[in-house]
Automatic annotation (TrEMBL):
Pfam families for the chain: 2OG-FeII_Oxy_2
PANTHER family, A to Z: ALPHA-KETOGLUTARATE-DEPENDENT DIOXYGENASE ALKB HOMOLOG 3
Domain Fe2OG dioxygenase as annotated: residue spans: 111-209
InterPro entries: AlkB-like, AlkB-like_sf, ALKBH3, Oxoglu/Fe-dep_dioxygenase_dom
Superkingdom, taxonomy of origin: Bacteria
Organism expressing this protein natively: Flexivirga endophytica
Protein name, as recorded: Alkylated DNA repair protein
GO MF, any single term: dioxygenase activity
Amino acid sequence: MALQGSLLDQIDDVGLRPLVGAIRRVELTRGAWIDLRPGWLTGADELFSRLSLGGSAGVDWQGERRQMYDREVATPRLLRFYHAHETLPDPVLTQARSALSAHYRGELGEPFTTAGMCLYRDGRDSVAWHGDRIGRSNTHDTMVAIVSIGQPRTFAMRPVGGGASIRHTLGHGDLIVMGGSAQRTWEHAIPKSSKATGPRISIQFRPYDVR
Ligand SMILES: O=C(O)CCC(=O)C(=O)O
Ligand SMILES: [Fe+2]
């Protein structure tokens, strides 16, 4: 897969910039909010190269499993879900999970445990409007933290039941955290793009029994 790297990424090692003081919170309606931390992960293009390799060197990407995502049946993308006990495919992802757990410990009251990974190969790959509502997130406030690497894609959100959507362009190490009631009262999507779009990987960190 071809990936056009940004100049900054080429000189950066894979690592994490600080969270404290660098996060911007946006309050949405009905108790939902998002936190944004652009460029949280450094060396994002290097990490993309590592993770996009198949087999033992990278991630054993799998086609979307219909029975797990009944609300997303027709959406093409590749997936790998890491349960809490599994070793993540790169040490920086373990660091990222720890940093997020530490940063949000007071507000979330529990650590992030699982890591879902999605590979959008080009603009035809996408995910339809949905909330992550499997498990406790169907009834309780929670958080889903997403790190994006590779080429930026539009991350869209809209209120359940209608209303104006909001859009953020996420790639190259950007962090978004959806919090409060966001999985119940808002929906999110990665819309298809008709422009020539390179591949993007998203890594979603969630607490236990949230999916
Ligand atoms: O790729 C993304 O940023 C969103 C992924 C997502 O919403 C999901 O897998 O539940
Ligand atoms: Fe989602």
